Amino acid sequence: MYRKAPKAKSIFSKYNDLLSGKLRTEKPAWFSAMEIYPVNPSVYKAPSYFETGGKLDFEKGNSSKGTSESVKASNGESFYVKPRASNKKKFLKKAKNSPQNIVYPEDRLRRNFYKKHVYETYNPVSLKQTRLENETWDGIKNSTFGLSGESVIRYQLYLINQGFSEEEAYNIATSEFYREKAAQELEIKIAAQEAQNFDSLPVAKINSLKTIEFEEEMLKISKKVISRNVQMNQSQQAANEKSFTS
Questions:
Q1: Which residue of 61, 105, 130, 246 has the smallest Cβ count within 10 Å?
Q2: DSSP category for residue 142
C-alpha cells in the first residue's frame, strides 16, 4: 500500500488545465520548474496494517468479552487463552527507575506548626548543630536550636514516640513553648526597666548616639572645608579685580 499522490502533482495538473482553457496566461516560476523536473510518485510504503482482531471463534469471543477463559480444542483438551486487552501497550509499560521521595515523620509536624505560627518563620534558625552527643528531645530547651519552632517539632515527635497522639503532643509542646516564650519576653522587659533605673541606655540608643556624634564630626569637617573654599574664592576674585584695574 503506497502513500497518497503528492499534492504538488495535483496542483500542477489543475494549473495546466487553467492554462489550456486560457483562464491563465502567465506561467509562474514554480510551473516552469515542475515542467523540467516533474513530481515522481513516492517509493516509500505506508506502515503496514495487520489484522489483530482475530478470526477464529474463540478469538472473537475473547475480544468481545475482554476476559481470560479456558477453551476446549478439537481433541477435547482445554487450554488457556490470553485476553486481547493484555497485549496492548498500556499494559506493557514498566515503572521507571526513579528514586523515591525521602519523607521524615517530622515533616508533617513542621508544616502544621508553621502554618499555625507564621510569625515564627521570621525568626532565624541556625542549621549548625553542635554537641549532638548531649542533645535530647524530651523538652523545649534541650534542642540545639534553642527556643524556636524546631524545638517544638522535635519535642512533639518525642511525645508521639512516648505514646501520645499527635494532637495531644501538639497541645503539650505548644503550651510549654508559650510558657517559655512569655518568660523570655518578661526577662527582656525587666532587664530594660532595670537598665533605665540605673541610667543605662539600651544598645539601640547607644548605637544611635554614636551615629549622631559621627554625623556631627562630619558636619564640622565639612564646614571647615566650605569656609576654606570660600576664602580661596574671595582671594582669587580680589586678585582678578586688582589685575583688571591696573
A1: 246
A2: T
Return left, alpha or beta for 22; rule: phi > 0 is left, psi -120 to 50 is alpha, else beta. left
Mean pLDDT of 11-30: 87
Distance, in Å, from the CA atom of 246 to the CA atom of 165, rounded to the nearest integer, reads 104
State which H helix or E strand residue 69 sits in. Answer: strand 69-72
pTM beyond cutoff 0.85: no
pLDDT tens digits along 96-150: 667 778 888 889 999 999 999 988 888 877 767 776 777 778 888 776 777 888 8
What DSSP state is assigned to residue 80? E
How far is residue 194 from each of residues 41, 191, 200, 202, measured CA to CA in Å? 101, 5, 8, 11
pLDDT of residue 67: 47
User: Which of 109, 104, 102 is closest to 165 using CA atoms?
Assistant: 109
The strand pairing partners of 72, in sequence order, are 78
What residues form DSSP beta bridges with 79? 71
| pLDDT at res. 200 | 61
Residue type, 188: I
| Helix boundaries (H) for 94-148 | 105-116
